[in-house]
Amino acid sequence: MSTNPTKQGRLNSKVAIVTGAASGIGKGTALLFAEEGAKLVLVDLHEDKLNEVAAEIREEGGSCEIVCGNVGLMATAERAVARAVDVYGRLDILFNNAGIMPVGDILDYPEETWDEVLQVNLKSMFLMCKKAIPEMLKGNGGSIINTSSVMASLTEPGYTAYSASKAGIIGLTKEIAVSYAEKGIRCNAISPGWVETDMNVRLADSLGGMDKLYPIIKQQQPLGRMATTREIAYAVLFLASDESVVVNGSNLSIDGAASAAI
Ligand SMILES: NC(=O)c1ccc[n+]([C@@H]2O[C@H](COP(=O)([O-])OP(=O)(O)OC[C@H]3O[C@@H](n4cnc5c(N)ncnc54)[C@H](O)[C@@H]3O)[C@@H](O)[C@H]2O)c1
């Protein structure tokens, strides 16, 4: 686990579910949440990688459960929320983060791929919220953070279902925020730009290697490089913690000024 010089117990006594926790932004956030005192339920398709993340957290004295399953299915949402309540007795934070990004022109884009992207990226959040909100209402409320993308509002050819799913996440986020604000549940979206994760390694492979991707990143993201997963995780930590108690229904750009550029 990476050293956290500012470890302050910002999530002490909180219970959090993190989806897509086996790699990338989900893994980076799970590690930071654990360092800040949260007890965790990690959800992903990949059991071996989930176990590795869980082992890393437990080695540092953290508490961690894993649920292996497809976030697009109600059964996975039920199992994840039940695990949090059975093991830790409550649920305070839900980080809906799992996502996929198959690219292709709309004319060649298979209908099944469209359905799968909408199911994994958007419907999963509806399902997780349906199961998580009743448990949050039994406690002191909660914080839900949904991973959207800069590509919800700025896109380029080929992001057929991905951009649609990420735009839908922002609508869902606002609806939950206004419906449950009075009851102490907050719901915010994050919109990362380019981030160093396997998702972009796969994209680079499809373009012919990282050398092909770097000039695009430099041109699109004024920061001039990809964000690290740790840099994204710190923004999620703020939204998860009580420090952001009045931040609700927002969509936080974490994109090195990509969405500010012409
Ligand atoms: N990497 C970026 O530049 C970037 C930018 C903006 C938004 N995002 C979003 O961030 C989120 C995390 O992506 P990442 O970059 O860390 O990618 P990643 O591929 O490293 O991680 C995604 C994780 O989600 C899991 N997952 C995929 N489908 C699943 C399913 N059906 N059920 C359960 N788990 C599933 C994968 O196994 C993987 O562990 C995604 O929603 C992605 O769209 C990424």
TrEMBL record:
<dbReference type="InterPro" id="IPR051122">
    <property type="entry name" value="SDR_DHRS6-like"/>
</dbReference>
<protein>
    <submittedName>
        <fullName>SDR family NAD(P)-dependent oxidoreductase</fullName>
        <ecNumber>1.1.1.-</ecNumber>
    </submittedName>
</protein>
<dbReference type="InterPro" id="IPR036291">
    <property type="entry name" value="NAD(P)-bd_dom_sf"/>
</dbReference>
<dbReference type="GO" id="GO:0016491">
    <property type="term" value="F:oxidoreductase activity"/>
</dbReference>
<keyword id="KW-0560">Oxidoreductase</keyword>
<comment type="similarity">
    <text>Belongs to the short-chain dehydrogenases/reductases (SDR) family.</text>
</comment>
<dbReference type="Pfam" id="PF13561">
    <property type="entry name" value="adh_short_C2"/>
</dbReference>
<dbReference type="InterPro" id="IPR020904">
    <property type="entry name" value="Sc_DH/Rdtase_CS"/>
</dbReference>
<dbReference type="InterPro" id="IPR002347">
    <property type="entry name" value="SDR_fam"/>
</dbReference>
